[in-house]
Amino acid sequence: MTVTPLGIPRRLLEFTLDGEPVRAPEGSTILDACRAAGKDVPTLCEGDTLRPKNACRVCVVEVEGARTLVPACSRKAEPGMEVRTDTERARHSRKVVLELLASSVDLSTTPRVAEWLKEYEAKPDRFGPDAARLNEEPKVDNDLYVRDYDKCILCYKCVDACGDQWQNSFAISVAGRGFDARISVEHDGPLTESACVYCGNCIEVCPTGALSFKSEFDMRAAGTWDESRQTETTTVCAYCGVGCNLTLHVQDNEIVKVTSPHDNPVTHGNLCIKGRFGYQHVQNRG
């Protein structure tokens, strides 16, 4: 029999969300409450395994009495607050943010962005082709994963996952200032000469596909990547006794990439190099 741990009870607080009274556990963010209430608030930099960074500002909402719009991903819900998620001010802010992001970087592999651009009537093309922040080739310097910084929105999730929040390798950081800011390894060298341990946890949290499995990158380049034909099977990693959960993404009877469930109490979405990339032996049929 499976026993579900109840955890520490949390007091419920009451506030108003789009004119409707709602209750949320104490410590919840506005975004948590929105999702529980079925409100679809867009977000890019928010990650359920990382502390909020407030980088993308796509999730801003209006709070009664607040001078500015507030990021729903980090603002805690408070008793009696009045939150409005779909006001003209909030929608206009999201529209402009989406336009700025989509005009400066390639969001073609970012989930749901095309949907949001349409919903908010965003027109990134109005800034012209000179708005592009980067124009460089993808960095393919190893056999495991690819860095395509033309798709990077500087959300810093990879930096946090590689740093003190999870892996503690500190191989990834931000280099440069202002418009020259970019994600980089030390001395902007090849990944193979950096402190990277190839855990792939940065890929797990990347929201735009700037970091991707080389298998996925190659299949996209060949036009064969098709998520509608892929199945997902969660299993237990066989390399050691820790018990990490793996989700195998399979297309045409081949494993094309590996993720890990974020709600797993052992891994919280994180893996080591063997769990993330050591699946080739499964399909070695020689």
From TrEMBL:
Residue ranges annotated for the 4Fe-4S Mo/W bis-MGD-type domain, each copy included: 230-286
Entry keywords, A to Z: 4Fe-4S, Iron, Iron-sulfur, Metal-binding
The keyword Membrane is assigned to this record: no
Domain 2Fe-2S ferredoxin-type, first and last residues per copy: 11-89
Residues covered by the 4Fe-4S ferredoxin-type domain: 143-162, 187-216
RNA-binding among keywords: no
Domain of life where this protein originates: Bacteria
InterPro entries, per database record: 2Fe-2S_ferredoxin-like_sf, 2Fe-2S_ferredoxin-type, 4Fe4S_Fe-S-bd, 4Fe4S_Fe_S_CS, Mopterin_OxRdtase_4Fe-4S_dom, MopterinOxRdtase_cofactor_BS, PSI_iron-sulfur_center
PANTHER family: HYDROGENASE SUBUNIT, PHOTOSYSTEM I IRON-SULFUR CENTER-RELATED
Protein name: 2Fe-2S iron-sulfur cluster-binding protein
Organism of this sequence: Streptomyces venetus
